[in-house]
Design a protein that fits this description.
Layout (H helix, E strand, L loop, with lengths): L13 H12 L3 H34 L6 H47 L2 H6 L2 H43 L1 H48 L1 H6 L3 H53 L5 H42 L9 H7 L17 E8 L8 E8 L4 E5 L6 H8 L7 E6 L2 E2 L5 H6 L1 E4 L10 H5 L8 H10 L3 H6 L17 H14 L4 E5 L7 H15 L3 E5 L11 E6 L2 E6 L1 H7 L2 H12 L1
Parallel strand pairs: 3-8, 3-9, 6-7, 7-8
Antiparallel strand pairs: 1-2, 1-4, 4-5, 9-10
Helix pairs in contact: 2-3, 2-5, 2-9, 3-5, 5-6, 5-9, 6-8, 6-9, 8-9, 14-16, 16-17
Bound molecules: adenosine-5'-triphosphate and magnesium ion.
């Protein structure tokens, strides 16, 4: 199975791309200037080198004179040394330019992603975003730094050669000039084809890698479901496609080279034929003829390079469109300028202006739909008093997570208002609310790093004592101490070195360290061992005290003590009350509860 990504990237005109590129390159104009000047001088020297050979042949070899030999040698050494120094300079500045540009684009993309709300990550798959910040940005850095340097080199080189040729003999030059358009047209055509093919090979290759991954990771599932032969067929299809595109690529290359060599040979024959006559009539020297032969051979390189870059610029254009789309994407949830002026934004929080959050939460006439879908909530009303513990239970897909995500302003209601402490939460900054919020996600995420770093993630400046206090409160302290390095134990990527229950407890400690006024627990559906469950149960009870809490529970034992239990079905509250009253009602909650307990 292959995940198809949405790839309706907004098309940008070349003018717009260039405008944006200039904007991004502005801070690095010094690097560009140095790199371009040095590569331009290099191309000039390289084009001049064959002229030195001509002088050597005509003066020192044919005439056997030694007059001016010393000056000649000094000039030659001087040119060679300049080349060395200039190559060093352009390599350094080209690299600086590439790194700086990649860094600046990644930084801007990363900043934008940090500001994006949940809905952005719903719309765009992780892989889609990753491809933009990694390979697309890398390609832009590569083509802008090295591609443009090569472009300057090839243009400089061709101009240099043409200049030298016309200075020496215009008749011979005209012969080569006629060849140039053919060389350019053929090269551009083939370079484009070659690049298209490389792209196809890359995309089939990533499909094969994907199939390998699925085949290996899902090997057990496939075996259990006896689906191995289908996997093998799919894989065979892919390898056949790979074979086809690779052969086509090889054929294109196999055609290209002989054509160029053929054109070159025509040029050589013409130069030799005409040159022979010119020597016979004493119009040119042997050195000049050798020079022209060299030029004819040298011509191919910069033209090939020039065409390759033109073809690659198209690919980079597409990459740039994709990256710009990310960097310029609109934010779904924004604070108004007035709010930012008063409360600050995530970079500059004006905490001194933040009101204390008491914890009253009210949903008033909320209607909510995820982009373009059916409404999940319609005219939803709920009033929660500060300090109250509200449990949400009910069938999967009923809207429980949606309700709490709205309370957290991870999404905003399509219509209606959410009031916190009696005031529409859009009248305060997002940071203000999130600062006062502790949220344990349905699937808690730990970052690679130590346990201590993970607990203090929301309050990096927290003293060690506070961190251990939080861990003790949620009963995580004991198991942490038993780990080989205690609080300095690395949790591994995504917390993989820890069990599910341990990850839960760490995320509890992380939430509680912020001492939030509103606490949200979206209980994991995956089962954990009885020991961890008991710990988590105790941890939850401690955390709830003194704050507004929303508990989404799958194990109903968690919530028997909640102040209020809401049974949610199809985005509506169908039953409401505490455990005792709901049980005596013998309705939906009663059936859910007895059903769950009969299972054990
Ligand atoms: N990001 C999203 N984009 C579009 N639709 C969504 C999104 N998240 C949830 N939904 C839809 O909204 C409805 C409510 O989902 P929600 O996650 O709130 O259910 P839930 O009660 O938390 O379920 P569970 O108990 O399985 O966690 C479902 O029909 C779901 O398909
Ligand atoms: Mg949920």
């Amino acid at each position: 199975m292959v995940i198809l990504m949405n790839d309706k990237t907004k098309k940008e005109s070349s003018a717009n791309i260039i405008k944006n590129l200039f904007h991004f390159l502005k801070p690095f104009k010094f690097y560009i200037l140095i790199a371009f000047i040095s590569i331009a001088i290099i191309s000039g020297i390289e084009a001049y080198m064959p002229v030195m050979q001509k002088i050597a042949i005509d003066n020192f070899i044919i005439l056997k004179s030694t007059v001016g030999l010393q000056v000649f040698l000094l000039k030659y050494i001087g040119l060679a040394l300049s080349l060395l120094v200039l190559i060093y300079i352009f390599t350094i500045f080209g690299t600086k330019l590439e790194l700086a540009l990649v860094y600046s684009l990644r930084e801007q993309a990363f900043k934008k992603l940090q500001h994006q709300s949940f809905s952005y990550f719903d719309r765009n798959a992780d892989g889609w975003i990753m491809a933009r910040v990694t390979s697309d940005i890398r390609r832009i850095g590569d083509i802008v730094a090295w591609g443009f340097i090569d472009l300057v080199w090839s243009i400089g080189y061709i101009t240099g050669i043409l200049f030298m040729m016309f200075k020496l003999n215009y008749k011979l030059s005209l012969v080569l000039l006629v060849l140039i358009p053919f060389l350019v047209i053929i090269s551009i055509y083939f370079q484009k084809k070659i690049l298209e093919n490389q792209r196809k090979i890359r995309s089939v290759n990533s499909l094969i890698t994907g199939a390998y991954n699925e085949g290996i990771l899902g090997a057990k599932t496939s075996k259990i479901l006896v689906n191995e032969s289908k996997n093998i067929d799919e894989f065979n299809d892919l390898t056949t496609r790979m074979n086809r595109v690779s052969v086509r690529g090889a054929m294109t290359r196999a055609l290209y080279l002989p054509m160029i060599i053929g054109l070159n040979s025509i040029g050589l024959i013409a130069v030799l034929g005409i040159g022979d006559n010119l020597i016979a009539s004493n119009s040119i020297t042997i050195g000049t003829l050798v020079l022209f032969i060299n030029f004819t051979i040298m011509f191919f390189d910069p033209i090939q390079e020039f065409s390759r870059i033109l073809a690659e610029i198209q690919g980079a254009h597409a990459s740039f469109e994709r990256v710009l789309e990310l960097i310029h994407s609109d934010l779904d949830i924004v604070d108004s300028q007035e709010i930012i002026d008063k409360y600050g934004d995530i970079n500059d929080k004006k905490i001194h202006n933040w009101e204390k959050l008491k914890g009253d939460v009210e949903f008033r006439n909320i209607t909510f739909l995820y982009k373009d879908n059916e409404p999940i909530l319609e005219n939803f009303n709920l009033n929660v008093k500060a300090g109250e513990t509200v449990a949400l239970v009910g069938e999967t897909g009923g809207g429980k997570s949606t309700i709490v995500n709205l309370a957290c302003r991870f999404y905003e209601p399509t219509s209606g208002v959410v009031l916190i402490d009696g005031i529409d939460y859009k009248k305060r900054s997002q940071s203000w609310l999130h600062h006062n919020l502790g949220y344990v996600l349905q699937t808690p995420h730990l970052f690679s790093g130590t346990i201590m770093e993970n607990i203090s993630y929301g309050r990096p400046e927290a003293p060690f004592g506070d961190i251990t206090d939080a861990a003790k409160l949620v009963k995580a302290h004991e198991f942490i101490l038993k780990l080989p390095k205690g609080y300095d134990t690395e949790v591994g990527e995504g917390g993989n070195n820890l069990s599910t229950g341990q990850k839960q407890l760490i995320s509890f400690a992380r939430a509680i360290l912020k001492n939030p006024s509103i606490f949200i627990l979206d209980e994991a559906t995956s089962s954990i061992d009885a020991e961890s469950e008991k710990l988590i149960q105790e941890a939850t009870n401690t955390i709830l005290q003194g704050r507004t809490s929303f508990i989404i529970a799958h194990r109903l034992s968690t919530i028997v003590n909640a102040d209020r239990i809401l049974l949610i079905k199809g985005g509506k509250i169908v039953e409401e009350g505490d455990h005792r009253s709901l049980m005596s009602k013998k309705g939906g909650y009663y059936s859910l509860y007895t059903e769950q307990f009969n299972k054990f």
